[in-house]
TrEMBL record:
All copies of domain Transposase IS116/IS110/IS902 C-terminal, residue ranges: 191-273
InterPro entries: Transp_IS110-like_N (IPR002525), Transpos_IS110 (IPR047650), Transposase_20 (IPR003346)
Domain called Transposase IS110-like N-terminal: residue spans: 7-147
The name this protein goes by in its record: IS110 family transposase
Length: 319
């Protein structure tokens, strides 16, 4: 019986450090096209069951796509999980080579699920939506500065605000055009926006940052977004449940949509008020509405059905 092999990869802006679990060898490549090709050739020789690397925000993207395109199973994991694993095993020293070995050991022990990569169009839409969030953040910051700015720089700030507003308008037009030209996205967008309280920003964010929507069950989709409550119990103590982790961009968009939905969506407003009347804090009730809204959208996309208050009422009414 052939033994499974697990590879850990530590990636930085300049280098790629590679280790195989229970193998003393260590390889380092440059994090560029040539280095990634050498990495792929090494993996062909190693023939790993699973390759694990940390999510660095962007440095791991090129290597992930190249290895996945060549048929390797690649899992990109939260760096916090690796650090917690290292502490639990007493591995506190830190070098790039050691990090790669820790990741390889993590891969062999935990065996995280491989990452399913979005297609090229989804990647483009995700990049546009990320840029939109950056522009919105800059606009908010500049508008806040304008009220307190010295008169000598006010005109400069106004000019920058004008440019940012034009940039935001261009981004909205480009993302809207991408949706209109993609039949599947257009259908999904129309389904999601049929829900009172759901607008273009949420539908675009879900299409770009959560392509799994409609393909998972409600518990899985809530956990993926970071809206699944976690217990904090110990012995006789029953701690307060809380949410954490997940995809922050999706959670932020869901928050704004739920905030609107509890005002304009009769069923979610009723659900929210019932929770508040039962003693739940308003923030807790709103988080429950966020989770409910996400699960509703997931069910609607799975069944390809638009909003219908009579059909959705039993789903919204249950806790």
């Amino acid at each position: 019986m052939e033994m499974e092999s697990f590879v850990g990869i530590d990636i930085s802006k300049a280098t790629i450090d590679v280790a195989v679990h229970e193998n003393k060898e260590h390889w380092t490549f440059t994090n560029d096209e040539n280095g990634i090709k050498k990495l792929a050739n090494l993996m062909r020789k190693v023939s790993p069951s699973l390759i694990v690397m940390e999510s660095t925000g962007s440095y791991e993207v090129a290597a992930t796509y190249e290895l996945s395109a060549r048929g390797f199973s690649v899992a990109v994991v939260n760096p916090r999980h690796i650090r917690d694993f290292a502490r639990s095993t007493g591995l506190l020293a830190k070098t790039d080579g050691l990090d790669a070995r820790v990741i390889a050991r993590f891969a062999a022990t935990i065996k995280p699920s491989p990452r399913i990569l979005p297609d090229e169009d989804t990647q483009k839409l995700a990049a546009i939506m990320a840029r939109r969030r950056q522009v919105v953040a800059m606009l908010t910051a500049e508008k806040n500065r304008l009220g307190q700015a010295n008169h000598t720089v006010k005109e400069r700030i106004k000019q920058h605000i004008s440019w940012l507003e034009q940039e935001l308008d261009d981004i909205n037009k480009e993302s809207g055009s991408m949706i209109e030209s993609n039949t599947e996205w257009k259908e999904k967008s129309d389904i999601m926006q049929s829900v009172p309280g759901v607008g273009p920003n949420l539908s675009l964010t879900l299409l770009s940052d959560m392509p799994e929507l409609g393909n998972l069950n409600r518990k899985e989709i809530a956990a993926l977004c970071g809206l699944a409550p976690f217990n904090r119990d110990s012995g006789q103590r029953r701690g307060q449940r809380s949410i954490w982790g997940g995809r922050s961009s999706v959670r932020a968009a869901i928050y704004m949509a739920a905030f609107s939905a509890v005002r304009w969506n009769p069923l979610l407003r009723e659900f929210y008020q019932r929770l508040v009347d039962s003693g739940k804090r308003r923030k807790v009730a709103l988080v429950a509405c966020m989770r409910k809204l996400l699960c509703i959208l997931n069910a609607m996309l799975k069944n390809r059905t638009v909003w219908n208050a009579q059909i959705m009422h039993p789903l919204v009414a249950c806790h």
